Amino acid sequence: MPRQKFLGIYSVLKERIESGEYPTGQLLPSENTLIAQFDCSRNTVRRAIAELVRDGYVQTRQGWGVCSIFHPIEQTSYTMGTIESFRETALRTGQKSTTRVAAFSRIQADEALARQTGFPAGTDLFCLWRIHDLNGKPIIFNISYLRADCMPDLTREIAAGSLYRYLEEELGMVIVTSKRTITVEPATDLDRQYIQLGEYNCMAVVTNQAYNSQGIMFEYTQSRHHPAIFRFQDNAIRRPAPKV
Amino acid sequence: MPRQKFLGIYSVLKERIESGEYPTGQLLPSENTLIAQFDCSRNTVRRAIAELVRDGYVQTRQGWGVCSIFHPIEQTSYTMGTIESFRETALRTGQKSTTRVAAFSRIQADEALARQTGFPAGTDLFCLWRIHDLNGKPIIFNISYLRADCMPDLTREIAAGSLYRYLEEELGMVIVTSKRTITVEPATDLDRQYIQLGEYNCMAVVTNQAYNSQGIMFEYTQSRHHPAIFRFQDNAIRRPAPKV
DNA sequence: GCCGATTTGTCCGTATGTATC
DNA sequence: CGATACATACGGACAAATCGG
Fold first, then answer.
1. Shortest CA distance to B196 belongs to which of B133, B143, B144, B142?
2. What tens-digit pLDDT sequence spans chain B (244 residues)?
């Protein structure tokens, strides 16, 4: 049981849903019942349920209850609303991953790059090209720009390992928010050089802007995925009606 | 001011951030200050801030404060973590949209379709092909399967209008949750028949499973987008470290 | 249609824990 | 160490939606 109570309740409920104890389409016990079961306050139960809603496990309806909408099929998604590094995802799904550094340089952001990345013009940056292999096959071509003043001692060797592990464990940097944009772009010569695309002439591109705990954007990365293996899943919740 | 207090505070803070009153990289007033300003409880302020975090406007850090990470550039996204119909999106971005029905039929889900869509085998379904034009150009090919028992009187004519408006306003159905998956797939002959792809040989595919307020999945839709106009944006928040 | 019981949604006040400076 | 800030948790009150009698 985690230190935080609501997370404990959350994972217990999650497991009950996955195990079929609360079947799809049926109501969970009411909040009051759960309060008695877990011996906690109403807010704590509600917090746990809110997380399940975010995960697409249940949905709630005023005056009615909390309803399971779990379907076991979809649990194999590549990534969801959390930040997860390539290495972490591979680990979670039990696959074998390696990373190669194809280029490593230090540059200053010119006007065009500033517009593209969102860094102020003139910012001192590391430019990093990495290839991610999954089960021996190259599938992601990563173009990163990293604020040099946030990681002055970055080397090509470090970049070959887990960049996020280095930032978090070595530098004590806390990665908090990440803004992502998904697009589909024509494959470039560079893409074809690193990724075996076969018949495909496009790439699935995830553009990622990561912020550290001080609110500074320290990373801009274009992850150019082989289209055949790319998969992104999320759950949307309809907001209360747009008041006329 | 909306009926709900936290939404009012949310939109006031949002506007202050957008207007530059709380510049990017700086801290917002502390919770206690905001409590005094809005004359409300701590929970209410925190709820409003939580929404801003979800929107990627701010990030919070214990012991430090709430920090603006707003960048005005990115506000043109095609869609975000909410459910929005094609028509609503077009309206919001001020574009001209039309919808054509290319096919309309009534079928029963066989085993293969059941596996693909998640409907139980044998379910009575409407099958609907629609083409969405934006500013006169066809850009989305929509393949929908709809539970017939949720909308027995659906006709081709109704489908040509806004399907969601019909479901919500005419049938009083409330759309709550939607599970989306984004992939990239090779363009089919059918795709090419309806969408002018030019050099592209792929489509950006958004697979959507929509649930009504009773927790019943009533819609499965494959939205096959022209890759050049497809854009999906979201904000990820790093969960507290995976407890080892 | 109304009423009452149940259930979730919103809001308040307070206390304590924990991270930051 | 203390002051300040956010994070978690508790308990209570009322509102709004749902459903059954």
1. B133
2. 567 899 999 999 999 999 999 999 899 999 999 999 999 999 999 999 999 999 899 999 999 999 999 887 554 444 455 555 566 666 666 777 888 999 999 999 999 999 999 999 999 999 999 998 888 889 999 999 999 988 888 999 988 877 887 887 777 777 788 888 889 999 999 999 999 999 999 999 999 999 988 889 999 999 999 999 888 888 887 765 433 3
- Fold of the domain spanning B3-68: Arc Repressor Mutant, subunit A (1.10.10)
CA distance A134 to chain B (A): 18
Q: Would you call B68 an interface residue with chain A, using a CB distance cutoff of 8 Å?
A: yes
Could you say which residues from 130 to 189 on chain B have a Cβ atom under 8 Å away from some Cβ of chain A? 174-186
Closest CA to B230 of B209, B211, B210, B202: B202
Within chain B, all domains assigned CATH 3.40.1410.10 are found at 77-233
Q: Which CATH number fits the domain B77-233, given the four candidates 3.40.1410.10, 3.40.190.10, 3.40.50.2300, 3.30.1360.120? A: 3.40.1410.10
**Cβ-Cβ contacts under 8 Å, A53 against chain B:** 177
Edge-to-edge strand ranges of the sheet holding B97-108: A231-237, B175-186, B202-212, B217-225, B137-147, B124-134, B97-108
CB atoms within 10 A of CB A153: 9
Residue B198 in contact with partner chain A when CB distance is under 8 A: no
The answer, for A216 touching chain B at a CB cutoff of 8 Å, is: yes
Residue A18's identity, in one-letter code, is E
